[in-house]
Amino acid sequence: MAKKLAEYEAKRDFKQTPEPGAKVPRKETKASRFVVQEHHARSLHWDFRLERYGVLVSWAVPKGVPADPKKNHLAVHVEDHPVSYIDFAGEIPAGEYGGGQVSIWDRGTYETEKWSDREVMVVLHGKRLQGRYVLFRTNGKNWMIHRMDPPLDPERKPMPERIEPMMAKLATAIPKPESPWGFEFKWDGIRALAYVEGGRVRLMSRSGEDVTPRYPEIHAMGRALGSSEVILDGEVVALDEKGRPSFEEIQQRMGLTSESEVRRKMKLVPVTYMIFDLLWRDGHSLLTYPYAERRRLLAELKLSGASWQTPPWEKGGGQAMLEASAKSGLEGVMAKKLDSRYEPGRRSGAWLKVKNRNRQELVIGGWLEGEGKRRGYPGALLVGYYDKDKKFVYAGKVGTGFSDAMLEKLAALMKPLEQAKSPFDVGSPPKASRFVEPKLVAEFEFVEWTRSGQLRTPSFKGLRADKPASKVVREGG
Description:
The chain has 477 residues and is mainly beta. Helices cover 12% and strands 40% of the residues.
């Protein structure tokens, strides 16, 4: 048995780490024990250990022990540990093997149904883990762990791959009366749903694009949630020099694909994930729960970190919050009915956005060549939206708000999309127009819609790579 612990002992300096030494117990315990330890090392994982013949036979499980028999998780076989490790919890110093925080996630006893070099089948009797599990070897040290029994919670369901975000209708004023509404600040950023499972975060844009690699600073939120399985709704924002969310700033993080470029921009333009809804928790959908109850359950998660926050909300008090948002330079507020359910993919009247200034996403359908130093580049963009009949409606031209770098980028993006025919089904763009396939989406700020259905004094704010062109509709009537 001492030989079994030789590898364990060789990897550790017991003068530096509080972990127990490689001691062999004098006698066996009456019932075989198991422990699962949550290990916040360089990479979060769970250590699954079974007491057998005087040692703890051990596996590192990156995504945790599965609660659902429909999912198998990787389990990497590691060196045997001393039986005294079954009670270990604490901080392994940085620089030592496995450095990081260790806590006991579950423990209890188990019965062996089968044990071979390739397959281990046990029945666990713990507080969190109860029932039959099998570990089976796949390749070298790589095994899989599978729950053989139905889930302990018979209502538990697998996490959905994707939920389409619920959208809000534009309103010109705070709804009256305010009592049945909850109010939040509106964040000027990128909408993203976070799917967190086994301590790992997967971020999806509202168009369904996986943007997880684009925002590495948010990944650590998975470690904070540990074994909790959740789907969160929120906004990825970047702050300007005055500490306000800035769409101009967040544009610098959009569309990046190179890991080195992402890392470089991370230092220049850090982001924060503002979380405002909880859609799924530990095998259960919360979509039918009232908004107020979802916010209560979200608060229980206590999600507050270096790059993620759960901003406060208020029952009533919308007008005061709108005035505060204007003073703080924020975009406006969101009003949400306290008893409203979450309606995926719908632009529902149960959610309203009240802005301090008008914003509209539009599709670029062409451009007018600039004059002077802008010759050869867009002098103005021709923009439009889709009406209820799916017709592409001309909404006017926009000639301000561009930096030289953005003009170069727009020219490069539009060149391969050029076409001879106008893409607009409704409206008449200028005669000198050059047209493109309506695929690029951008956001614009403006004073109001004119009677003829065009933007009054619009200004370009930035490209929106997170929304498909076909989804762009006119807001505010």
